Amino acid sequence: MITIYHNSRCSKSRCGLDILEQSGKPFEVVKYLDDLLSKEDLTNIITLLKIKPIDLVRKNETIWKTNFKGKTLSDEAIIEAMVNNPKLIERPIVINKNKAIIGRPPELILDII
What we know:
- By secondary structure, the protein is of the alpha+beta class.
- The protein is 35% helix and 16% strand.
- The chain has a four-stranded mixed β-sheet, with helices on both faces.
- The longest helix has 13 residues, at 11-23.
């Protein structure tokens, strides 16, 4: 089953959702701002993405700039920051079996569905 971690306020995330809907394949929508991710969930997603935790952070968010920018943070601290402030998580994230991608641009989603 394909899963999209979605924020309906984000235009890129809405485009990603449209791509999945047009594909005709079954998928699940996780509204991660409502259904908060655990530290374990987020760590698993980062592993599937094959990136460093910092690469999943939306660095232009006010929360990041105010509380974290310029600080030396461990990977664990960055993950904790995203768990506690889910607006910091880049989106959309699409997972299909053992593959994952950040849909920026949304067309990248086509590579894994």
